[in-house]
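Posting for a labmate who doesn't have an account.
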Amino acid sequence: MLEGKRVSRISVRGFAVASATAVTTVGAVVGVAAGHDQGTTDRVEATAADTTLLADIPAGQNVRAQAASLTQQADTQSEAAETAAKKDAEESARKQAAEDATAKKEAADEAAKKKEAEEKAKEREKEDKEQVSSRSATRDASSFAVKGSYSTAEVQAMARSMVPGDQFQCFSNIVNNESTWDYTATNASSGAYGLVQALPGTKMASAGADWRTNPATQIKWGLGYMNERYGSPCGAWSFWQANQWY
């Protein structure tokens, strides 16, 4: 019965090991009966005692352990996947933000360049108009009735009609300083004559033979002189301010 009990507690190492143990045990018993060394039996008993038997493992424990291990592995893999996905999403968001910022900057730069080009175009257009308007009188000198004398108000009205509106104030500033709107003003020392103090006065004959008595003729000549030499009455006024003459 001793041998039968040991065989029923078979080791998890396999049926072959259990069978070998049983056979060895039987041989040992026979050896003892025949008078052989008792040490053999003791070694067999020790080997059997050190072996983990199926009966010593609770039923179903292996299955639960494997299931727990698989669950832990699945959780670890899931966490790793979530971390990787989060990292990828953050990197994609960073790249997208950088691309959006670059595109926004490029659009702003393009808009600024376009605006600058439009402003320059407007300035050139304005300058062209000013040059055209400043070089052409709005009314010709010959359109005024010839009189024996003219008041200051009448002379100023002529100038307003002949000088472009955006240039009139500059023209008026020069005339105020040169003759105070007296079309017969004469500089005793230099001989300069008229509203714009042409030097000599005979220069104004190119605008009309009546340059001595007709303020419209003097205005015509003065406007042409300012346009030709300084680009416009305002250009002449800027020079006058710096030099007190023009």
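Reply:
Got it, the structure tokens are right above this. Residues 61-134 form the longest helix (74 residues).
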